[in-house]
Amino acid sequence: MGGGAQSSANHGSKIRIGRIWGSLILMRSPAKSITGIELSRQFYESVVRPRITAALGAVPHAVALLGDGSEVLGFDDAVSTDHDFGPRLQLFLPLECDPSPLAAVLNELPAQFKGFPVRYRDSDNHDGDVQHQVDITTAPEFFIAILGVDPSTGMSLGNWLSTPTQVLATLTGGEVFFDPTNLLGDRRSALRWYPPNVWRYVLASAWLRISQGESFVGRTGATGDDLGCALVTAQLVRDLVRLTFLIDQRWAPYTKWLGRAFTELPHSPGVAPALATALTASTWRERETALCNASSALGEATNLLGLAETVDSTPRQFHTRDIRVIGAERFTQALIEAITDRQLHKLVSTVGTRADGVYQLSGAIDQMNVDVLNRRSQWATIARGLW
Question: Could you tell me the residue ranges of all domains in the chain?
Answer without folding.
Answer: 36-190, 196-386
